Amino acid sequence: MDMAEAEAVVDQVEAWNDGMGKEWREALPALLNGSGPVAIEPEQMPAVVRNCVDSLVERKQLFDVTNIVAEMRMVKSSEELQLARHAAQVAMALM
User: Fold this and answer.
1) Distance, CA of 5 to CA of 41 (rounded, Å)
2) Cα–Cα distances in Å, from 16 out to 1, 65, 70, 78?
3) Exposed/middle/buried for residue 33 (C-beta within 10 Å: 0-12, 13-18, 19+)
4) Which of 8, 48, 74, 92 is the most buried if burial means most Cβ atoms within 10 Å?
5) Torsion angle, alpha carbons of 63, 14, 75, 46, to 10
6) Domain boundaries, the chain
């Protein structure tokens, strides 16, 4: 989340809340109410979430950032790289 906020060229970055309380159903309308442009990954969104976003935001205010986010996901911190190496070592040991 820190990297996303540091690299973002938007005013606000929010983490996805799934499985706790009312999940996104409470936060999303409050965040999008009267918002400006909204960056989304349309192919990654469950239909129920996309339908909610579509009902709250004018289509001309929605921007597909799939390619940008894909590039961001390729950048890993040294901690993430160490975790990946460890996971690979565990997997190899189990073979």
Assistant:
1) 17
2) 10, 16, 17, 23
3) exposed
4) 8
5) -60
6) 2-94
